[in-house]
Amino acid sequence: MKYLLLAFVLLSFMGCGVTPKQEIAIVPIPSKVEQKSGALTWKSGQSITIAYGDASLENVASHWQKMLSGDYNLDVTLKEGTQGDIVLSLASLSNTEGYELDVTPSSVTVKAGSPAGAFYALQTFKQIMPLKAEVAGKTKITVPAVAIADEPAFGYRGMHLDVARHFFNADSVKRYLDILALHKINTFHWHLTEDQGWRMESKKYPRLTEIGSYRPRTVIGRNSGEYDNVPVSGFYTQEEIKDIVKYAADRYITIIPEIDMPGHMLAALAAYPELGCRGKDYKVAETWGVFEEVLCAGNPKVYQFVYDILDEVIELFPSQYVHIGGDECPKEEWEKCPKCQAKIRELKLKGDGVHTAEQQLQSHFTKEVEKYLNDHGRKLIGWDEIMEGGLSETATVMSWRGASHAYEAAKLGNDAILTPNTHCYFDYYQTDDIANEPLAIGGFIPVKKVYEYEPIGKDVPADIRKHILGVQANMWAEYFKTFRHVEYVLLPRLAALSEVNWSDAPRDYAAFVKRLEHMMKIYDERGYNYARHVFDVNSQLERDNENHTLLMRLSALSEADIRYTTDGSEPTTTSAKYTSPVTIDRPMTFKAIAFYDGNKSRVTTQEFDFNLATAKPITLNTEPNKAYAANGANTLNDGLVGTKLFNTGRWIGFVGNDLSATIDLVKPTEIKMVGLNSLIITGDWIFRPVSISVFTSDDNENFSLAKEIRPEADTKHVNVIERYNVEFEPQTTRYVKVVVESLKQMPSWHAGPGKPAYIFVDEIGIY
Ligand code: ACM
Ligand code: ZN
Predict the structure, then answer these.
(1) How far apart (Å, rounded) are the C-alpha atoms in residues 250 and 487?
(2) How far apart are CA 51 and CA 73, in angstroms?
(3) pLDDT of 323 higher than 70
(4) What are phi and psi of 694, to 5 degrees?
């Protein structure tokens, strides 16, 4: 490796006859980067000059100064004028958040569309500067000459944080804002209230924090029924909030506060029970989920409470937007509550086959709140549920249940923000290796998936496009007890999100990861806790259709030295070196590690159950569900066994029909058992198969039943992987057909009775 690298440097050195250019790696990728020859030498005792008349750049200039002195121990003075070592000025650019950064061997010039643009120029400049460790103790620092012209694709670049499920103190929130600033994020969505805690001090309703900010214990894991007996408490005083709002503004970040209503209000109800339909017996939630207890929408006192709280919110937060939540508000209590029902009659609301009267009541509630905000000069944002029962003409929709609600809202002429749970939920797992990962809520959103998110397809017309303000990722904190953990799930996915929001250039994941490596060194410099999955060895399986074996191709970052073992032992630098695809032709535990200069990746492990079915020709006789077709028939005999995550591509899903697959054993072969795995997560509508049948045939036309088994039906919620082995008298056959029957009507105890259930099946083994 080292020799190769040296040869490369020598070649480029000889090729152009000058010192090789220092590599520039910036995330998010700028619109235009023109690297020039030569470099600027930066030393102490230089100046930052703000153009005459551009006093609004003073704050940015002091950020430049702090970065140079804090990171590099360089003394720089601020002055006003036209010339200097760093000259900052405002200019009329096509995008107010844009900037031009020109580094020449003699100076740095920044022309920005606004102070925010100059701040983004600084974030870029930091990534061009050497790392602190590279220049420690040196008095001269060189910066490669470069001309950058840059502007964001989207004006709303958001990141959310739930401080209610777990509380993160004011210093942690500031650290979060620093991280956002580094990634040119300009909006912080602060989710301040929940069933499990109320975190904003209210002067008018002090019990909200006296009672609502405290819970004595929390359920362990995902509603296990056992509790930890560790109290969770905390809230932000109004003074702290003002300080944080200013801290954000100094970094050109707008804070959008969220008071989630009328659902997710248990903590407030515990403090003021009269605000609920039932009026008593509430307590701050100690478990996770969606709770039936919500604000009473038929009680005038509730509207007054909401307006009073919004008065305080408006006083504290200058943001034009206020987020009022609106998500996950069950209607069971409203259906029974005399006050809510009286309100429904008064408003003459009637179910219309699309929306129930109660959904329309929520729409009424939201519109009243919107009117109040508008009357006070503010705009309303809500989660996409605010569309149910009728969307107002002016509300902004945050589309989280997929992206479709955003386009639907945009079609209606409303603005929308994309936060789809398919790509932007950072509380989901970032790896499918969940056995070695701290607990997450579920799902699977690796860095690559975030990075490859295309917010607006090419076929979206301009009149819809203009209503899509931008993209935001959400950080729900049920499973994050510490701020270190928040950092770990945030980084580096935030880097991917920043590029989705900032750049409309075609995506190139491999190139992104190369640039990300440098960003990670800045994370190291700042002590941020980030996930390192991108360093891992990635594997790709191919079939060798001639030999009916599998070929495993490995890859990692370009400079990696990949070593592997097939006996279950942990690879070392002297294990077999990966140079070409590895043949998998027997059961084995395959492990690989990527070694980097002084560093190594985590272990990638693959268990192969190589049996008579593996890598043999296989066809599906029925259609899987489109969303869960994975790699088609090959998913079922690629030697890779699915884990408890259903959307990693290892499971194949069927709903409404059965799975039928035929495997060609290539020649008559004696067999006595067929096995397969089924993933069952009844909460996600995935049930046990009704039956599993094995048929055999010599001609692929006339099949006879070898054996059918019928697993016991699900009678309660489960989340398991089950192995089904279908055993029969030994027989010799060439073709094996496996039919897995799905449940066509879910039982009455389930939330979707009468609807068809999914089956998820993986890895058919023949023995
Ligand atoms: C949400 O994830 N409940 C908006
Ligand atoms: Zn009510």
Answers:
(1) 22
(2) 25
(3) yes
(4) -120, 130
Distance from residue 414's CA to the centre of ligand 2 (Å): 29
| Residue 654: strand pairing partners | 759
Note the ligand closest to the C-alpha atom of 263: 1
Q: Is the peptide bond before 492 cis (omega within 30 degrees of 0)?
A: yes
Q: Whose CA is nearest to atom 2 of ligand 1?
A: 400
Residue-wise pLDDT tens digits, 73-89: 999 999 999 999 999 99
661: which strand partners? 620, 738
Alpha-carbon distance of 267 to 202, in angstroms, equals 13
Strands (DSSP E) contained in 210-312 are 214-215, 232-233, 254-261
Please name the residue that has the structure tokens 């005459």: 52
Q: 117-132, pLDDT tens digit by residue?
A: 999 999 999 999 999 9
| Ramachandran angles phi, psi of 211, nearest 5° | -105, -45
| Residue 522: partners with Cβ closer than 8 Å, 6 or more residues away | 126, 127, 131, 182
Residues with a CB atom less than 6 Å from ligand 1: 327-328, 383, 400
| pTM for this prediction | 0.87
400 CA distance to ligand 1 middle (Å): 6
pLDDT band at 139 (very low <50, low <70, confident <90, very high): confident
Strands 86-90 and 46-51: parallel
Distances (CA, A) of 332 to 258, 358, 518, 717, 753: 24, 9, 52, 21, 18
Residue of 365, 411, 418 lying closest to 388 (CA atoms): 365
Q: Give 383 Cα–ligand 1 centroid separation in angstroms.
A: 7
Decide if pLDDT at 335 tops 90.
yes
Amino acid 461: pLDDT: 94
* Cα 297 to ligand 2 centroid, rounded to whole Å: 5
Asked whether residue 14 carries a pLDDT value surpassing 60, the answer given is: no
Ligand minimally distant from the alpha carbon of residue 260: 1
Q: Is the pLDDT of residue 20 over 70?
A: no
617 and 663 Cβ atoms separated by less than 8 Å: yes
pLDDT above 90 (res 379): yes
Tally: H helices and E strands in the chain: 18, 34
How far apart are the C-alpha atoms of 678 and 690, rounded to whole Å?
Answer: 11
Ligand nearest the Cα atom of residue 400: 1
- In angstroms, the CA 486 to CA 476 distance is 9
> Residue 315 Cα, ligand 1 centroid: separation in angstroms?
26
* H/E run at residue 333: helix 332-336
Q: Ligand nearest 420 Cα, by number?
A: 1
601-626 average pLDDT score = 94
The conformational region for residue 470 under phi > 0 = left, psi -120 to 50 = alpha, else beta, is left
| CA 332 to ligand 2 centroid distance, Å | 10
Residues around ion ligand 2, judged by CB within 5 A, are 277, 296, 298, 337, 339-340
Per-residue pLDDT tens digits for 522-571: 999 999 999 999 999 988 889 999 999 999 999 988 779 999 999 999 99
Tabulate helix, strand, coil % of the chain (nearest 5). 30, 30, 40
Ligand 1 atom closest to 398 (CA): 4
Positive or negative torsion for Cα 282, 284, 289, 290: positive
Q: At what angle do helices 300-316 and 238-249 cross, to 10 degrees?
A: 50
Question: What contacts 458, CB < 8 A, 6 or more positions away?
Answer: none
Assign 3-class secondary structure to 528-551. Answer: CCCCCHHHCCEEEEEEECCCCEEE
pLDDT of residue 207: 98
In angstroms, the CA 324 to CA 523 distance is 33
* Rounded mean pLDDT, 177-182: 98
Atom of ligand 1 nearest to the CA of 328: 3
How confident is residue 751, by pLDDT bands cut at 50, 70 and 90? confident
